[in-house]
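**Discrete fold encoding**
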Amino acid sequence: MAQINLRDLSYLVAVANHRHFGRAAAACYVSQPTLSTQIKKLEQYLGVQLIERNSKQVMLTETGKIVAQRAHRVLNEVADIVDVARTAGDPLAGELRLGLIPTIGSYLLPHLIPVLHSAYPRLDLLLYEEQTKLLGNRLLRGELDAGIMAVPVNEPGLRLLPLFQEPFYLALPAGHRLTRRQRIELRELEAERILLLEEGHCLRDQALDICSLAGAGDIAEFRATSLETLRQMVALGAGVTLLPALAAAANTAIPNHAAIELRPFQEPAPRREMALYWRKGSAREPLLRAVADAIQNLSVVRTLRDSAQPSHSAA
């Protein structure tokens, strides 16, 4: 091999990310033998072992880790060069790979997509739904251009632009004793069975923070995979849960919505802050700021902003 090529660097980064040759090959859309052969050629060219291979696992050597980290930065820089060239004629056109956390995507996108299609007809929006940690990693690897996530995301390589604050509502089974209240005080959660999402969802951590303030705990034997599962469990009378405002607003769209009642919290009400994140130095920043502006001006977001009160943050 006369020189290092970007393709082989991408193979090494994929192995570093997946720690598995088969999954790395699938992510690179090549066969496993092809990926393995090219990495061996890269090792021969550099004169150093990058990967420890055995029957149980794939591990990078200390040198391999350093090379993979630098290769990752190189690939991101190359991706930015390509973005600069592609968007030179029209920075508001082309592909936009946008990630969203599951607890916001289904409730924000029906409002956002028509607006973006109308305002930026040459924009090709590609959407991905992942939990916060995975979205942050994909942003840093250059696999996504931006992500809509709850604050904070502790990644120094990312920039953020705040979008809106979203208050929480308490979802109760119809006829629950707390439905007699117009607003709920946090201390009233102490005696309740709180239903929460499974590990990995940032909303779970935010809800646990609220429960901690209230002296309440979650139901240890139950973990939901989605807000819609939580909603159905509340309808069945299994407990109560916390819904962000946009998800709460969609309550009337479910068939058995009459089995659930929603109540806001007393001020200062718990809420989460949503933000748009992207890699520092991204060439797509003008487009991303335009998308953020479109989100901030959605009627549903303006309604949230107009009704906002000073409060403590759930995050």
